[in-house]
Specification:
Helix content is 85%, strand content 0%. The chain has 109 residues and is mostly helical. The protein has one domain.
Length: 109
């Protein structure tokens, strides 16, 4: 595998992880300020951020679709495989973030 791809693979994981953790914790500050339950808010926000964390990690949906299209039209299956692995890496980051939040707030997410 290409060294640049491995770096992108790792970046996708941690970007998705950071979006889930940071977005849900910082987003719950508003609930704290308005005297709502912040832990329930963390749970709700984390559920809502799942797909956006994946999209943010892979760099937007247009780039992903363009790479897949390039792989299909040019017959280059390695581009499709690389894009699929990046998406799987982002999904892993999201799942890790959700599990960590679930562990921290002791509530099912």
């Amino acid at each position: 595998m290409e060294e640049r791809f491995i770096a992108s693979f790792i970046h996708c994981f941690f970007i998705a992880f950071g979006v889930i953790i940071g977005g849900s914790i910082i987003g719950s500050v508003g609930s704290f300020i308005t005297a709502d339950a912040p832990l329930t808010s963390i749970n709700r926000i984390a559920k809502g951020l799942r797909i956006w964390a994946i999209v943010a990690a892979i760099g937007g949906t247009f780039d992903a679709i363009a790479n897949i299209e390039k792989g299909v039209i040019d017959g280059s299956t390695i581009d499709i495989v690389k894009q699929a692995l990046l998406i799987i890496s982002a999904m892993g980051g999201v799942k890790t973030g959700i599990v960590l939040i679930q562990w921290l707030i002791q509530e099912d997410v």
